[in-house]
Amino acid sequence: MCLAIPGRILTIIDDGPLTRRGRVDFAGIIREVNLAFVPEAAVGAYVIVHVGVALSVVDEDEAQRVFAYLQEIDETGELEAGA
Amino acid sequence: MKFVDEFRDGAAARRYARAIAAVTTRPWTMMEVCGGQTHAILRFGLDAFLPRGVTLIHGPGCPVCVTPLELIDKALVLAARPGVAFCSFGDMLRVPGSAGDLQAVKAAGGDVRIVYSPLDAVRIAGEHPDREVVFFAVGFETTAPAVAAAVMQAAAGGLRNFSLLVAHVLVPPAMEAILSSPRSRVQGFLAAGHVCTVMGYAAYEPIARAYRVPIVVTGFEPLDLLQGILMCIRQLEGGRAEVENQYARSVRREGNLSAQRLMTEVFEVIPRAWRGIGEIPKSGLALRPPYAHFDAEQRFGLTVPGAPEPAECISGLILQGVHAPPECGVFGTRCTPDHPLGAPMVSSEGACAAYYRFRGPHLEEGRA
Fold first, then answer.
1. What is the DSSP-derived secondary structure letter of residue B26?
2. Which domains does chain B have, with CATH numbers?
3. Could you list the residue range(s) of the whole structural domain that residue A44 is in?
4. Would you call A62 and B248 a contact, using CB atoms and an 8 Å cutoff?
5. SS3 for B307?
6. N or C: less crowded end of chain B, CB within 10 Å?
7. Chain A contact for B168 (CB, 8 A cutoff)
8. Tens digits of per-residue pLDDT, B83-121?
């Protein structure tokens, strides 16, 4: 039920405080999404969307951390230690 | 799909598996809180990536599963009422009440509608002023802001034919209830990434300290889960019990403040009964007095007789991670997705449904 998926904002349709809405592209499927909780989200940003409402803007730098973490482990030699 | 596909990379997953094996010296038992995480673990077979002795147990994070029987029965009464259009997420339709389910009410002519968003229910209410539109508000903190937004839109639009049957629950009190149980086997938590997207994770810091458990806020893709497991085991091996954030691409420490503000405007915290677990203090949400006219229980004066849970269903123990689904005597035999005895076999996030779907009906007890 807490399923939420990332999509890219194509256009902002309405900029009212409670009704801020945009069209969001989920890998080719376009849906209208409520953007009231992400007032900072601009066209081109990726947002995490749950039941038609965007809950956060994806931090693209932080998204790389899952790979950077592996890199750090490789560099410290931790991978080989007990493998 | 960007921010999904790259987090399913097999080579990186194997590197994480090697790193987990390299740091693990002892058996550890962790609970993933969210049912979406449980499904990803079983769907991608992530438990097979873990060293022997490292065990994932499945938490209560399935709102459909923990909605008490009494509320399901109220939903059935409302949905069958002439003039009512009963709107629900699809997951709820086959959850068994004490007599039937919403699907059966629909089949018998009830106006039961599956909606994707609570905002859709508000739209339906606007389009059909002749019908009483009731939305079954089920969910955790992830879903509550969308429901709060629906209430505000209904209020702003002056809708008099819109109301909510509220079943909202909160995650941190349930984690504390699990840790307080003498049967708890949980040594570390993978906290639910989308709940924390809304609420942040400051609330977990006192829990980590009080119960000496590491809590790692974790996402839902295979690499997220493997990194969360690695971070949690590193803490366990190092004797640390801190809150860490694996899912930083979506989660900030303070969460989404505008979503929290609207939730606090519309809802207040109350004690709530969890199906199979019992009442947990401060674990639910109810509409505040200024919005009480949107409360379907008040509007329709609903009362239903108390009803016992089916004796064969051990969903309470499954939801607390005391037992895994294959340990249930009726799993895959008298309880299947077509004929469920309990909600965890129905919901797309239920642990029993995940085992049935990805491991098949005839299971020996395995590493779960």
1. S
2. 65-170+257-299 (3.40.50.11740)
3. 5-81
4. yes
5. coil
6. N
7. no
8. 999 999 999 999 999 889 999 999 999 999 999 999 999
On whether the CB atoms of residues B163 and B134 are closer than 8 A, the answer is yes
Question: Which uninterrupted H or E stretch holds B257?
Answer: helix B257-266
pTM score:
0.94
Window 246-275 of B: residues touching A by CB (8 A cutoff) are 246, 248-252, 256, 258-259, 262
ipTM of the complex in this document: 0.93
- Say whether B252 and A2 touch across the interface (CB within 8 A): no
Query: Closest to B140 (Cβ–Cβ): which among A2, A46, A55?
Result: A2
Residues B234-284 pLDDT 10s: 999 999 999 999 999 999 999 999 999 999 999 999 999 998 888 999 999
What tokens appear for B252 in the block? 């900030």
Residues sharing a CB contact under 8 Å with residue B225, sequence separation 6 or more, in sequence order: B32, B37, B40, B41, B46, B190, B218, B219
Strands A29-34 and B215-218, sheet pairing: unpaired
- Structure confidence at residue A80 as a pLDDT band (50, 70, 90): low
